[in-house]
Structure formats: structure tokens, C-alpha cells
Amino acid sequence: MKLTDFALIFVGVTLPIIITVYINVSFTIKAEEQEMYYKKIISIALNDASEQMKEVENSDSEIDYGYSGSENNKISVNAQIAVDTFLDSLYNNFGVKGNTYAESYLQYFIPAIAIIDYNGVQVSSIENVKETYGSSGIQIKHALKPKRYYTYKYYICSNPDDSSKLMVTDDYNTALNNGLKSSHVIEFTMDDYITHRGTIKDVSGAEKDIDVSSFYISDQKNNASLVSDVTSYNSLSSAEKNLLDEVVSKLQEKRKEVIIKTIEDEMKYATNNNNYYASDAGIKYNFVFPTLEVDEMESQIKNVGIMALVQGISMGNRYLNTRAYSTAKLSEITRYYLSIPDDSASKYKIALYHKDTNCPEYCSSINTNITPSYVATKQQAASVTALLKKDNQYIKLEGFYPCPICNP
């Protein structure tokens, strides 16, 4: 066989392989370029949403977030504006704005949008929504679910190893088998501020409600209710006092875990549910919520923000599968300045908090050598335990009242 014949055979064998490899590499490069582009427009959409969802209120909301806008205004989060802004930005960047069918179809590839708020999470996902128009009155589209609060339950019961002692557990059956004393529900927030409610059994075994209260976990002035129906630490029994530190420590450990699990559970449910609607729409992609690293999630629950999962969009020889996050960047924190009365100059003889260091009452009061010198929310100002350094000694200051002059 001639050398030219070998050459022709070699070319005949290798050329299809070279072409196939070239095509695959070209598709891969194109897919990577598309992925970079899609991630960019998703990031832009999230940033737009995080900026637009900040809602300025002219008066304090039920919870003082500590986020300030202009003077005397508070900022809270509007979840619906966040979702609408995010979707609208995607419509524009995907070039489908105004095409109702294309807009609706794109929503199937966004299984979950989570608005991560100070005290809970709201998730938007595809579902049947009743409308006032159309022949059937039903439309399949993204819709916000009610807020899911960062909730945790625990129980107090007798210690099986020593009946004179108490123990805390988050397992109801364990508590029931060991003489359930009280049940407690905690609503966590992004900081140590909590809302607490519960029930307690009296000597007859009848249950009664514990008053609902909100305070900082580590505030000994108010946290006695975490183990009892009393409000004063000094009113606790010896066994309850011994238990309180354990309960506080447990809650501080559980806070991040509960917040992360709540967000993940809501987004997992929405993602799994999206498969039902996508399948009916003829989409074969299997939507799955990705496994997230704990450290990654912890960094994303330090501030209010928005998270979105986008999957299943075709990119040549593969599919887009990305999860993106943007914080609301509510970085301007309200400051409430603490002072105690100076008997020689102060008009009011109680510890006060002020919104302005130029307040006449603040200026005439003792406001130096107080730790902390200011706090971020009114709730914290009302319950904080501060220290005043005087003559090389520390004096404990508990609870401050709003200044009648600057009216914070």
C-alpha cells in the first residue's frame, strides 16, 4: 500500500474526530460565555431588586430594624416590590419584556426567589393564582407566600437523672415522658433580639399562657420568662436559675441554625413544587435545590437580602444552574445615645436615650464613660444593661427611657 493511501486513511479516521472535538469545544466555549452573561444579568436583577425593596416609612414600624433613611424615617422591606423588580429586570435583559407568553414561560426557570428579612423569609414561586380576569379565573405565575418566621420550640421538664433538677430539650416526647413543665416558642431575628411566648403548667397541672415579650437573649433583666412565667430573675427558683444559663446558651447556638434551615426548607419546597408546574408546561428539566455550605449561608444571613435560584435554561450542550444572592445594603444604622441625669443640670431624673447628641437634655446629662454609649434600636435601648465608669468603679445601668425633648 502506498504512503498516500495511508495518509488518506489517517485523514479519513482522524478528521471526523477533529471535527467532533472542535464542535464540542466550540459549544463548551459558547456555553461558558452564555453562562457568564446569564449570571451577570441575574446579578444585575438582584441588585436592582435589593435597592428597590427598601421601603421608607414616616413612622416606626412594629419592629425597629435600626435601619435609617432620611431623618426620622425608618426603612423596612417590601417583598413584592423585590420580586416584581427582579422579574422585570430579567424580562428586559432576556429581551422578552412585553411578551406575556415569554414572560410567563421564563418564570418556570426561576423555581424560588427568597426575600430574607430581619425576622423571617418570604418565598415567591410558581403556583395557581386566582385572577379576576380570564375565562377560568386561574393564572399560573410567581406568587409570594406568607412570611415564615425563624421559629424554634423547646420544652422544660424534670431531669431524669435528678428529679430535683430541670432540663431543656427540643424533643416533645422526651419532655412529655419526663414530666413536661412548660413549652416555649422563640421567634429569632438576625441579631440577638427575640420574641418569646409559651405555656406553663401550674401545681394543679393546668396550662396557662406566659405573657408574650420581646427582648435581647442575653438581657438578664428580661429573660427570666425563658424558663418560667415570672418576669424577674430574682423570682426564679433555684433550679430555674441554674437552668437559665443553659437555655440562653442553647438559643444563641440555635439562632443561625434555625434561620438557615428555615430559608433552605422554604426554598427546597418551592423548587420541588416547581417540577410539577414545569412538567405540565412541557419542560423536562429536573429542578433541584443545591446543597449549600454552612459558612456560605452564615455570611448571607447577616443582613436583609434577596436570593434567587435560576435553573434549566439551555446553553448549547448544558443547562444553567445558578443560585445568586444580593444584600439590601441597609448600612445606615440608627443610633440612640444613652445618658444618665446630672443632678445639678438635668431636668429629668431618669436614664434616657436620645436620637441626637445636640439634644439639650443629652448635653446637660452625664453621657461619657457609658458603655455602650449608643445602641441601634429602641427595643435595645429599653432593655440594655450598660456600665458607667466612675471613680475607677463600674455602676450597672439597666433600661433607658425615650427623651421627652428630642422624642426619639
Explain how this protein is built.
The protein is α+β, with helices and mostly antiparallel strands. It has three domains: 3-147 and 284-327, no CATH class; 151-256, no CATH class; 336-402, no CATH class. It is built from eight helices and 20 strands. It has helices spanning 3-52, 79-94, 100-107, 172-177, 238-280, 294-299, 360-363, 378-383; strands at 54-57, 74-77, 112-116, 120-130, 138-144, 148-149, 151-159, 162-169, 180-187, 193-201, 207-216, 305-315, 318-327, 336-339, 352-354, 370-371, 374-375, 385-390, 393-398, 401-402. Strands 3, 4, 5, 6, 12 and 13 form a six-stranded antiparallel beta sheet that branches. A five-stranded antiparallel beta sheet has the order 8-7-9-10-11. Strands 17-14-15-20 form a four-stranded mixed beta sheet. Helix 1 (3-52) packs antiparallel against helix 2. The N and C termini lie far apart (99 Å). The mean pLDDT is 80.
